[in-house]
Write a structure and sequence with these properties.
mainly beta, globular
Length: about 110
């Protein structure tokens, strides 16, 4: 099982989405606050809407920029809180393509695609 995961979100029809063929996901959207967190996280990445790299893990790793803390389950997904952004966001059941159980914390690094 992987410890670090990588996705490349981009904007489609005005929404942040990502593809992960290995996980069976295509244009999987980020909604309910996570989209707003992404807007804030990528503010310094030129043309982020065309795609950027997001590395994430349930464990801290070098270069981590953001931490999401688990709050509660709802509608098959899970709410996470960002102290950095002072807001919550909902991660849909696609989270279970990467983790067998919702992690207590999710650590994230965003960077331009090379």
């Amino acid at each position: 099982m992987n410890v670090l995961f990588v996705i490349a979100p981009y904007k489609y029809e005005g929404m942040w989405v990502f593809d992960d063929p290995a996980a069976g996901l295509s244009r999987e959207p980020f909604i309910a606050g996570i989209d707003t967190m992404i807007d804030k996280a990528v503010v310094n990445i030129p043309e982020a809407e065309r795609g950027f790299r997001a590395i994430f893990s349930a464990a801290p790793f070098p270069g981590t920029q953001f931490k999401l803390e688990w709050r509660r389950e709802e509608a098959g997904g899970n709410w996470y809180y960002s102290d950095q952004f002072k807001m919550e966001g909902w991660l849909c059941p696609a989270l279970f393509k990467y983790f067998s159980d919702p992690p207590r914390d999710i650590y994230v690094k965003v960077e331009p695609k090379k």
